[in-house]
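Q: what does this look like with phosphoenolpyruvate bound?
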Amino acid sequence: MRQKIIAGNWKMNLDLDQGKELLIKIIDSDLNSNCVTIVAPPYIHLNSFKMLLSHTNIALAAQNCHQQDSGAYTGEISVEMLKSVGVEYVILGHSERREYFQEDSIAISFKVKNVINHGLRPIYCCGETLAERQEGEHFITIETQIKQGLFHLNEMELLNCVIAYEPVWAIGTGETASPEQAQEIHKFIRNTIAKEYGGMVANNISILYGGSVKPANAKELFTCPDIDGGLIGGAALDADNFKALTDSF
Ligand code: PEP
């Protein structure tokens, strides 16, 4: 079902004590309960965060996972392990994973399937680089990422995914896509899904925008008809900003 969502991607920030301190501030900040709220801290925080979140409506996400269930994959974490500490969502295909860890949409599609198979929900990221936008290739980039990363799923599986459109040129740069630019791509993503799976599926998927979202620009973005919330990096590391973002619907 299409939901309003604010998801905070903490990336590789904050040690465990700092993380707990921020999480407790977020829990105490009386978040708007009209949206689904998700925090995605580093792996090592997840286990103790689950306990802190047990009497709240805040859901826990991981920032990545491995595509296999177990085995000789030194340094990796499986979906089953994430599930065992209460994780409900997994961010996949973030542009930083694509850029620094050479993950492409085909490789990510295996992770997507594994997350779904274990009953968790992928937050699948897509987005074009600045060069691709300047060359007018942004639609084809997004279409390819969506088709390769998600179109191996059946209808029910796809409905369990959340999509995040994150133009690479807007992530951590302070530069945000205008509401018109973001809405255009969100509508394009929905149409791409509708062509393959029909309107019911397309209309019931939450599509988040990410890229320098902050309280000052969130309302304008979130009132666009095809934008269902945000995947937030920098602004999610401040409890007041995070609360303000949940109040932006
Ligand atoms: C992100 O990393 O997903 C993101 C959108 O970061 P920021 O909000 O800092 O641009």
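The CA atoms of residues 115 and 170 lie 27 Å apart. The mean pLDDT is 97.
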